[in-house]
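Example record used in the benchmark description.
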Amino acid sequence: MANSTSANLKLTVQATGENSGTWGQITNTNLLILEQAIGGYDAFNVTNASRSLTFTNGALSNGKNEVIKLTGTLEANVNVTIPDSVEKTYLVEDTCNHAGYTLTFKTSSGTGVLLCEGHSYTLYSDGTNVVKAGELKKWRAITAAETIQPGAQILANTNGGAFTITLPASPALGDQVNFIDQGYDFNSNALTVGRNSSNIANTASDLVVNTQGAAFGLVYSGDATTGWTYTEK
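Model output (structure tokens):
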């Protein structure tokens, strides 16, 4: 009977009588792979093309790490993929500058999770799709126009002049975004929330906020007529 490979971490499963003289080396490699899966860390740079995390049979590979930190400035919509059929959990930190583009963590052929700039995630693959088990949301201060992702929590500072924050394109039911007037300047320099083709509060118009100290949230209702609606204002 020949050696085989485990389904998820691609460990070498040694058959009886195989690997004379190399049993210890293969076992040590398997233990190092398990160490990667339990506590390994990798910083993975993404820019303008979809990239795959690797799962090499019987070898250390970046996709086997427990913690993945995504870095870089996006120049296009990007997918970070893991192979189909792999079952694994990940802690993913999105430190990329999205620059208005989307970043998705997914399997090669299945669906995945649309990441929000600055957030950290607990994700798992069930062998078909990547699923979100948890999300740590972080407030992020911005001072210039930007397109945001679902889940964004924005401290908008318009002290240097009015600007527009554009809502996510093609939002899904339950997507949320939140805004705070960080510098108490909306009354002098208004914040515009660009609707990005979706209605806001039953209106096909951008939302102009000129109330000093405003703090409000929007959730996508799933109804095209209502569009984004307030969670509080």
